[in-house]
Amino acid sequence: MSVAGLGGSMGEKQYEMSKNPDGLWQVTVHDIAPGFHYHNYYVDGIQTINPVAPIGYGCFTPINYFDIPDDDSEFYIEKNVPHGEIVMEQFTCGQNGRTRCCYIYTPPSYHENVDTCYPVLFLQHGVGENETGWVWHGHIDNIMDNLIAAGRCREMLIVINSAYVYCDEPIHDLFPGDFEQMLLNDCMPMLKERYRILNDRSSFAIAGLSMGSAQAMRTAIRRQDLFASVGVFSGALPIVGTDYDGSAYMLNPCLISEKYDVFFIGAGENEPFWPDTLAKLKELEQNGAGPALHYSSYPGFHEWDVWRKLARDFICRLFGGGNSL
């Protein structure tokens, strides 16, 4: 019996396990960095799930994980502070007629200040994961509760959708259906009907990790009339897509602060694309991108411990918040 990671900070090395006197299989290792680690178990060479270890959803399947805190983990640990709520809402998707669900975080004051309306952050997961990721793995509710209690961010709603809009036609890529159409035509009307939200452009932001960052950037570029802030976690700078063109921001960096309140890019320092991306960001900064451009990075790979920290940095800058990093 053995256990192995999926790469990143844990690597792909297989650790052979041995049976202890109590009949339990175990292995002690000392070369795994702190952080969030998906991993697989193998019995006689067959990949399997360990039912007594934590199980999440990643790589399009239930999968085991463990989480080792590092020196910068307090911000996502549950503390004795006022807590907001995570609610699952259902609504109908116009593209396929199916019922969808999304998770919505409301801040601690939401049910007390009944005359107050709030800004909204739409936050997306990555490929192989779903709308549960930012709740169970990202601990976005704890992050928000702790930041609000410390006065480091503005109170806001966070809306977390599944990235996939499956329709009857064959799936040719990892972006089935039209995410933007679902978000704007189905999810947002539900949100406006059921929740007290502000309705001006400066009160809407969109962000995501990996695949979700591509969806966020596409939507923010195509719908500048609706979104004033965008966050890209472990994703590329604006690029030309089949139906959107972000090259103008590279050619004329001044446009970034003319068009957006917050334009945030971040990644793990060990991600292969980051050195080139960081160089481009510094060039944009030097060429007049202005106060909307922000970027940060942390030691690590394409992993949840990095994305939690990037989400914290982005959220602290949204909607005129505390900006205390």
Written overview of the protein:
The structure is a single chain. This protein has 325 residues and is an alpha/beta fold. Helices cover 25% and strands 26% of the residues. It is built from eight helices and 16 strands. It has helices at 133-136, 140-149, 179-194, 211-222, 247-251, 254-259, 274-286, 304-317, and strands at residues 2-5, 14-16, 18-19, 25-26, 35-43, 46-48, 55-58, 61-68, 85-92, 99-106, 120-124, 157-160, 204-209, 229-233, 262-268, 293-298. It has an eight-stranded mixed beta sheet, with helices on both faces. A hairpin with a 2-residue loop joins strand 7 and strand 8 (61-68). Helix 2 (140-149) runs parallel beside helix 8 (304-317). The chain is globular and about 65 Å long. The chain starts with a strand and ends in an 8-residue tail after the last helix.
Give the helix/strand layout.
Blueprint: E1 2-5, E2 14-16, E3 18-19, E4 25-26, E5 35-43, E6 46-48, E7 55-58, E8 61-68, E9 85-92, E10 99-106, E11 120-124, H1 133-136, H2 140-149, E12 157-160, H3 179-194, E13 204-209, H4 211-222, E14 229-233, H5 247-251, H6 254-259, E15 262-268, H7 274-286, E16 293-298, H8 304-317
Parallel strand pairs: 11-12, 11-13, 13-14, 14-15, 15-16
Antiparallel strand pairs: 1-2, 1-5, 3-4, 5-6, 5-8, 7-8, 9-10, 10-12
Helix pairs in contact: 2-8
The gist of it:
The chain is of the alpha/beta class and 325 residues long. It is built from eight helices and 16 strands. It is globular, with a radius of gyration of 20 Å.
Strand portion: 25-35%
Number of DSSP helical runs: 8
Shape: globular
- Structural classification: alpha/beta
Average predicted confidence as pLDDT: 92
Separation of the first and last Cα atoms: 44 Å
Number of strands: 16
What order do the helices and strands follow?
EEEEEEEEEEEHHEHEHEHHEHEH
Give me the Rg, rounded: 20 Å
Largest sheet: 8 strands, mixed
Spatial strand arrangement across the major sheet? 9-10-12-11-13-14-15-16
Low-confidence stretches: none
Percentage of residues assigned to helices: 10-25%
